[in-house]
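For reproducibility, we list the full input for the pyridoxal-5'-phosphate complex.
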Amino acid sequence: MTTYRIPQHGQGSGVTEEDLTAVTAVLTAGRHLSDGAEVARFEEEFARRTGAAHAVAVSSCTMALELATRVLELEPGDEVVTTPLTFQATAAPLLGRDVTVRFADIDETTLCLDPASVTAALTPRTRAVFTTHYGGLCGGVEELRALTGRAGVALVEDCAHAIGAAAGGRSAGTWGDLGCWSFHSLKNISTLGQGGMLTVRDAGVADRLRALRAINPDAEFVPRSKPAEFGRYGTGTVPRPVTHEKNAYTHDCARIRSGGVNAQLADPAAAMGRSQLRRLDSLLARRRAVAERLDAGLRELGVQVLGTPEGHVHAHHLYAFLLRDDIDRDELVRDLEREGVEVVLRYFPVHLLPEWRRRGGVFGSVPVAEDVWFRRLVNLPLSPQLGLDDADYVVDAVERALARQRVGAMA
Ligand SMILES: Cc1ncc(COP(=O)(O)O)c(C=O)c1O
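The corresponding predicted structure, in tokenized form, follows.
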């Protein structure tokens, strides 16, 4: 394994004494570790922090996206618009469904969906737009909210990178109908390595998600009109143990939307999440200081710095900048790696992954995203473990790499 002088992510949010104390308190309280008391507190605090009406904790962001997709009740022939510049999890729940997925293009100044391209992709069959707040910036979210509202389609925000992000004074995950969050190890805060959350506007949807994550089917239950007519249970006594929220004797099922899964977050993980949430502002401040130092240094080098647009709070999960046409990106990345700077490019365009090509994804359909990915995007390390001197080293390494190419071109 290569050891880099400047690794891409460090240890994500890291672990402090405070975190360990919070987790140990739950582990040693003598309670059942899945009773949900700590999870309920984490949900309440996450909802308060984001201003979301409801928060529902789950085992990962991938699971949050899956459950979000289930509550949309997509039907065969429905259409969903999403971004190609995202981790494959964003579109994963759509892959196995009989729906048409349209990849819209990105805005190269934010690397998020371009609202104009989304508008062009809408049809009368569109039911939802899935956007990703790439790197921790809610690019275009206000326009996406307005256009999905006008079209009467759902907006799902993939907030995996966006813990701490806001636009127009509102947190990520509260613009759309559903926000899906990740507490994976490398994210801005973590819940023992894996974890997720849904932020939800509608109380009924939050209830359905709570039932779904805890193995209950997403279904409509109605009181039995003739409770006595139920085979061997028809004696009037309720069967024990009761294994279902709506017990077998008292209710019938009128409609099944989808089966449930076990996507619960464990209480020790929630305790870690609560502890990390308390220090989110200091974690964000450290990310911001490094990102702003990189911005300032790279601006001097004549590359396209993305920065933070007016009115946005950036969560600085990933750092990205774009090269201009005269620089060979792959050569520059190799050079940075030789200098000990780890470069992990994110993300290979989803529509060109083999499984999406099989479903019709073709090169040339989203030219901005493809140009950015194949020729111009560079991601640099960003984590709260890095110092300003590390940022200076990275900028100097980029400067040397650019200079080598320019000298080479003149020779
Ligand atoms: C944009 C995006 N969406 C979703 C996910 C999936 O998150 P999780 O690992 O919590 O399932 C990730 C994880 O890296 C991500 O980057």
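The chain has 13 helices and 15 strands. Residues 208 and 218 are 6 Å apart (CA to CA). Both points were considered when choosing residues for closer inspection.
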